[in-house]
Design a protein that fits this description.
Layout lengths: L1 H45 L14 E2 L1 H5 L5 E5 L14 E2 L15 E5 L5 H14 L4 E5 L2 H9 L8 E2 L1 H7 L6 E5 L3 H4 L8 E3 L3 H13 L10 E4 L3 H10 L8 E4 L2 H17 L14
């Protein structure tokens, strides 16, 4: 009889110990999950920022007119990472940036690199590295990349007036464009990678105000893209594209999908960063 009670008490004590351990593990998981969610929200709100532009070496970058003044024996190279050899219909060589230094047939040739227009920071560093190597003495890059090329050749001009969220982030590292937001709240503006030069309301009066600003803003930068318009979503963007009459002298683009698409992009990138080296799913629960 004593053995029975002794075994019962031992089992009861063991149950209490297991419950105690489970409670602490569960509490730890919940706390970790809450911290992860808090960090996730903070990253989405504040990532990324392009308030300080990376300076480019002006000796590396040429306009289409300057390229035409070079020797006739130019080797054009498409270095866009998203384009394969089979997709390249431009009559250029297709070589990735990280493979250029191995191409000895390019040594001492006059080489002009054509990027996406939004990868200038990578191309600038690559040219600097190639020139330091000593075999590439005449390597340059086309300012504005494929967008400048298409404009010069009159290719795909309808596609030139939009950029993606990734292009907004990557291009903003070096391009001195100006952001113009339309119909965004201050809390929305704080989520963008850089501050807009102007924010306009969504109203009929705003159309004339935007046009007036563009016509009288002498401070816009001389870039292949002068302005980036950002609206709440794609529906508003399409409406404004029909209503606004933009001066032909400026190079303006619209953020594809507006703020909504940008937030989705940031959330996706943040999720990838947070889960690097982890399992694809880390649910906020404990399974006993």
């Amino acid at each position: 009889m004593l053995n029975y009670y002794f075994n019962f008490l031992c089992n009861l004590l063991l149950c209490f110990i297991l419950l105690f351990i489970s409670y602490h593990v569960y509490a730890s998981e919940i706390n970790k999950c809450q911290l992860d969610n808090q960090n996730y929200q903070n990253v989405i709100t504040h990532w990324p920022t392009n308030n300080h532009k990376e300076l480019l070496n002006s000796n590396f970058w040429l306009s289409i007119e300057e390229v035409n003044n070079l020797s006739n024996d130019i080797v054009w190279i498409d270095v866009r990472s998203s384009v394969s050899k089979s997709e390249n219909q431009l009559g250029m060589l297709t070589i990735r940036l990280n493979q250029l230094q191995k191409k000895d047939f390019l040594f001492n040739k006059t080489v002009v690199l054509v990027g996406s227009g939004f990868d200038q920071h990578l191309i600038n560093r690559t040219i600097n590295s190639l020139k330091t190597q000593g075999n590439f003495n005449n390597v340059y890059a086309l300012s504005g990349g494929i967008r400048t090329w298409n404009k010069f050749k009159q290719y795909h001009l309808d596609e030139q007036n939009v950029i993606t969220s990734e292009e907004l982030v990557q291009g903003g590292k070096t391009i001195n464009w100006q952001l113009i937001t339309i119909g965004l709240f201050p809390s929305d503006i704080n989520k963008l990678p850089e501050k807009p030069v102007q924010n306009f309301n969504l109203s009929q009066d705003s159309y004339s105000e935007i046009t007036f600003f563009l016509e009288h803003n002498d401070g816009y930068p001389a870039e292949f893209i002068n302005y980036v318009f950002i609206t709440p979503n794609d529906n508003v963007t399409e409406l404004l594209k029909k209503q606004l009459k933009l001066p032909s002298s400026i190079n303006a683009v619209w953020l594809q999908g507006g703020l909504s698409a940008y937030q989705e992009y940031v959330a996706h990138q943040t999720n990838l960063i947070n889960n690097t080296g982890k399992s694809l799913s880390s649910p906020c629960r404990i399974t006993l």
